[in-house]
Structure formats: structure tokens, C-alpha cells
Amino acid sequence: AQSVTQLDSQVSVSEGVPVLLRCNYSSSFPPNLFWYVQYPNQGLQLLLKYTSGTTLVKGINGFEAEFKKSETSFHLTKASAHVSDAAEYFCAVNDTVPETAGQLNTNLLRY
């Protein structure tokens, strides 16, 4: 069994300031963790993923996320927000056991 919780349903930031979108997970097995982004009028796009190894994952457009097992967190960050980052962001988890289903939650970033 696994789940993710995004702690902020909507985040408003100004251009040029740091971005933090929080995601906590629960998983019975070592998880695979993902962040997806959906820009207005576009399809879902993979932003970054963690499967194993290096805990700091760099994604597209300057986003990164750090896997913290002790805090069961995979927060998405960006050093400096840009107006083009306005979108809906989804944190997802799936166990490394292939028979189990994953869960997808959503977080909206507005400017």
C-alpha cells in the first residue's frame, strides 16, 4: 500500500522567489517517486523522478526534488520562480513491487 499527500492545495508565488511544493509519501516498499506538471491546455509531462541512488534529483526547467527517507518526503523546489511555471503539479508514488497500484495527487502553482 502506498499514498502521497501534497500539503498545499494551492501555492502563490511572485516571480523570482523560491518555489516549494511539498509532498509526503507512505509506502511499504522502497518507492519510486515522481513529479509531473500540466501546463494550461497541455498534457501531463514528467518533470522528474526518483527510483534509487542519488537522493537529489534534477528535473526540467530548473526544478529539483530531494528524496528524504527519514522524513518520507519528496518536496519539489526551484530557486527562482518564473511566470511560465504557472501550472498544476502532481506528486506520484508507486512501489517497486509491480503488482501494486500508484497514487497521484495534485498541487496548483499560481502567480
Automatic annotation (TrEMBL):
GO biological process, alphabetically ordered: adaptive immune response
Domain Ig-like: 2-105
Keywords: Adaptive immunity, Immunity, Immunoglobulin domain, Receptor, Signal, T cell receptor
Gene3D superfamilies in UniProt: Immunoglobulins
Cellular component annotations (GO), alphabetically ordered: T cell receptor complex
Entry keyword annotation includes Signal: yes
Name used for this protein in its record: Ig-like domain-containing protein
Keyword Ligase: no
Originating organism: Macaca fascicularis (Crab-eating macaque)
Cited SMART domains: IG
